[in-house]
């Protein structure tokens, strides 16, 4: 059997003892021992720090034996240190073991088989410890990389949140004399809901709300593209159906697979007090008549955007009177759940609106809706984005 090469450092300051140990090492059948000697602890530590040796045999009689063990351990030396102990100093031997010795052998009882077994076990334990240290280093490295990735992702998400926030209309409290209040509550940092308010001229105002199915970054990116498409296609002369059809075709052409985007688009003419609207799979907005304390839904057919290129939409029209309030919302509001997995639903929304005082402002109405939703769902995490826009006719 071919012997394994093994470099061994023997720390001993007594020549006969060194020669005795060297002879035993060279008689071990498993190893071809390359034996080197250090006469004192400082010299031994200097050599051990270079990690040149696989094993170190340390004579407990060597000066500074305990200090060498501690220093080698603190320096992260790889070689396991086997203590050659004096059978008469048990307390000192125990102290050396606690200081980091891999094993101890009674010097006067040594033979090659005992020495071979001790070296083999020490090397096995050393490999196990090194594997454990490597695993811990890899775990720490993975943890640090994950933390860096998470930090980078957080920064990217924050940037995306700011970009998405910039896409929301600003200073909406009064547009062409209309009182407007709005809330956008994504279930995560960013979401797939968006709305827009576009003043076409001094009497016409366009409102659009849409909801991209899904959450997070993909939904947010798609919603930004849909917003751009609507902004580009809303013109002075285009009807609501034509705008929806053009936006739908652009979405279908942009993506290789079908998308599901619900949308509601309406145009209010302040001079005629007329509302033209078109709906694509979106929850039907509510029209609140505060004086009569009555509600009606703005129902209109139409498939969601992004499914087929040739979808056709129809425009519906209705007359509004001063004081009427239009409530647009996404399904994240009515489909939010409580601890018992019950849904908020349309009925609760209706009850909130019908109990409000006639003189309630858009802020009052919006606040009551959000308050009711929060009271209903409590601490249950939202599963979808919630967007609400309240418009009051002057």
CATH superfamily of the largest domain: PPM-type phosphatase domain
Counting helices, strands and paired strands, the structural category is alpha+beta
Order of strands, main sheet, comes to 6-7-16-15-12-13
The global form is rod-shaped
Percent of residues in beta strands? 15-25%
Q: What's the overall average pLDDT, rounded?
A: 87
Number of domains: 2
User: How large is the count of helical segments?
Assistant: 10
Radius of gyration from CA coordinates: 40 Å
CATH architecture term of the largest domain:
4-Layer Sandwich
Number of beta-strand segments: 16
**What top-tier CATH class of the largest domain fits best?**
Alpha Beta
Strand count, sense and barrel status of the largest sheet are: 6 strands, antiparallel
Order of helices and strands: EHEHEHEHEHEEEEHHEEEEEEHHHE
Q: How much helicity do the residues have?
A: 40-55%
The CATH topology of the largest domain: Phosphatase 2c, domain 1
Report on this structure.
With 394 residues, the protein is α+β, with helices and mostly antiparallel strands. It folds into two domains: 4-136, Rossmann fold (3-Layer(aba) Sandwich); 168-392, PPM-type phosphatase domain (Phosphatase 2c, domain 1, 4-Layer Sandwich), CATH 3.60.40. Helices cover 41% and strands 24% of the residues. It is built from ten helices and 16 strands. It has helices at 15-27, 41-49, 65-74, 90-99, 112-167, 216-233, 240-254, 331-334, 345-354, 362-377; strands spanning 4-11, 31-38, 55-59, 81-85, 103-106, 174-175, 178-185, 193-199, 204-212, 261-269, 274-280, 286-289, 294-297, 316-319, 325-329, 386-392. The strands form three sheets. A six-stranded antiparallel beta sheet has the order 6-7-16-15-12-13. The longest helix has 56 residues, at 112-167. It is rod-shaped, with a radius of gyration of 40 Å. The N and C termini lie far apart (101 Å).
